[in-house]
Amino acid sequence: MPPIGDYALIGGIAAVCSYLLTFPLQRIAARMSFVAAPDDRRLHQQPVPYGGGLAMFLAFLAAMIVANHVGSLNGIFQGSSEPLGVVLGAAVILGVGLLDDAREISAPAKVAGQVLAAMCLVFLGATMFWLKIPLAGTVVLSSDLTPLITALWVIGITNAINLIDGLDGLATGIVAIASGALAVYGLRLVELGALQTTNVGPLIAVITCGVCLGFLPHNFNPAKVFMGDAGALFLGLLMAAATMEIGGRTEGVSGQTYFFYAPLFLPLFILGVPISDMAFAYIRRVAKGTGIDTPDNDHVHHRLVRLGHGPRRTVVILWTWTAALSGFVLFPLFAKASNAIIPFAAIVFGLLLFTLFRPGLRPPRRKQRKAAAADRDATAPVGAQADDAGSRKETALN
Fold it and tell me: How far is CA 55 from CA 85, 156, 177, 242, 335, in A?
């Protein structure tokens, strides 16, 4: 049995450190004018300081140091360079993100930084061993192919998280849910004997969930501080490392269709919202003839806001979808008989969400008030319109 209590302790330490460290780093960022200024693509009206990314990274370091001194988890660090590889890779990609937040570096430079972070994982062994490809069996990765696959994996996951970071608390909540589900998955595999107890993947997933939960109170709408590209890329690196450590090292377990048939696609299930948004963004930009790194206002969260959902409701919808995807992937691991009903449950849940959140069924209240006021003005006499306008003005001033 994995030491669940010790993993929970480390996750709690990560959450507390992330929450507390955000306060001083927010103030430091504000004094240094290291802020996100309002623009056409952002919904906030006032400058918001960065600092969340560095706070989460420091919380991650603190949790890793404590884990190294917890007896039941010490075996993960003994004789293994993989935890060091994750720390170094996270430090590299955090630096790339901080530089991008400060100076907006070019897309090729950012990708080069992501590749460098991926090589830290490769050279210190924190990568996948094999891939399970549907209808083709298991492909063992050679030493020549591992760096390429790892680099592509890191680039894909980090950019997926970065692209979805467009509303207060959106990326933070999605990664918290995804990493929490991944932690449960990994620890369940350890319990079943399908994953080694010294695998660092579950620990990375637990700490990732903790740092997100600690940062979320600062980042939910209205956000007091942003994590910026530094935080988004950092979280993406941790998720990439955890999925490679868990999904890329599990084989020979039968009967768990949604987990063991294709570990390569585990992030597509758990991180389905940001990855699908990233894919549509690339297709959209290629179709328009713009560069794939050209910002736009057509991400899934922008579309939901334009459809009439407020920022908070949009975030809740996407959180719910992520939780649903994670739950559908996790459930068969605990109840084997549920494999047959999962696809139907997913369809029913999707229809339920569509019914509850379809904007046409619930128009924005502001638009309703404006429409009602316009109708009153159109039907009322001229003098009454003037009196009504004056009364509304007086009410607004009061």
Answer: 20, 24, 19, 20, 38
